[in-house]
């Protein structure tokens, strides 16, 4: 999936405006997007808010049920105001926040860490109702190798970190992402 610079700017503005509206501030309504536009198609997406350059909240989905603009709008608010790891942002702080949007694609089942390129690939693990995701930029930020990347995804799913090596491992998928 190739998202143009203009489409990236639209998605950033959608995230910022959705956050502002959720905080009771004046902001533009979501833009009208034609049905043929890439932005109206469903796609797995995560929105990460950065405050002064540091991660400060994240929300997203690997199973899209709506168009990209709608999902960015929803997950921008969720990440900024409802990520349980952080206190909700305030309207006064909003100018210090910037959205980072990750559109995921090319999901491929893998047997283990072989062929997993941290910084290029993210990982999705699933076992029963448990799911965990590590985005490609997380592995690059922390310097993780493929094994550590899989372990972290398992932990995020609430599974033992070594469960990816078990005789009955969770389902493992790698993916790439456009991050902007």
How would you summarize the topology of this molecule?
Elements: H1 5-22, E1 45-51, E2 54-61, H2 68-82, E3 97-109, E4 122-127, E5 130-134, H3 136-142, H4 146-156, E6 171-179
Helix pairs in contact: 1-2
How does this structure look, described?
With 180 residues, the protein is α+β, with helices and mostly antiparallel strands. The chain has 2 domains: 5-103, Hypothetical protein ph0010, domain 1 (Glycoprotein, Type 4 Pilin), CATH 3.30.700.20; 110-179, Hypothetical protein ph0010, domain 2 (Dna Ligase, domain 1, 2-Layer Sandwich), CATH 3.30.1490. The chain contains 4 helices and 6 strands. It has a 6-stranded antiparallel β-sheet with strand order 2-1-3-6-4-5. A hairpin with a 2-residue loop joins β1 (45-51) and β2. α1 packs across α2 (68-82).
């Amino acid at each position: 999936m190739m998202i143009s610079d203009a489409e990236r700017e639209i998605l950033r503005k959608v995230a910022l405006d959705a956050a502002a509206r959720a905080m009771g501030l004046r902001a533009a309504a979501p833009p009208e997007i034609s049905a043929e536009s890439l932005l109206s198609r469903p796609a797995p997406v995560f929105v990460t808010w950065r405050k002064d350059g540091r991660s400060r909240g994240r929300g997203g989905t690997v199973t899209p049920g709506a168009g990209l603009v709608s999902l960015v709008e929803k997950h921008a608010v969720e990440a900024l105001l409802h990520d349980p790891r952080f206190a909700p942002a305030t309207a006064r702080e909003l100018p210090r926040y910037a959205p980072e949007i990750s559109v995921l694609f090319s999901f491929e089942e893998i047997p283990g860490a072989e062929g997993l390129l941290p910084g290029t690939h993210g990982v999705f693990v699933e076992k029963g109702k448990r799911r965990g995701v590590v985005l490609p930029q997380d592995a690059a930020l922390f310097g993780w190798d493929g094994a550590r990347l899989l372990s972290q995804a398992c932990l995020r799913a609430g599974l033992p970190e070594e469960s990816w090596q078990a005789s009955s491992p969770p389902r493992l998928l790698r993916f790439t992402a456009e991050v902007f």
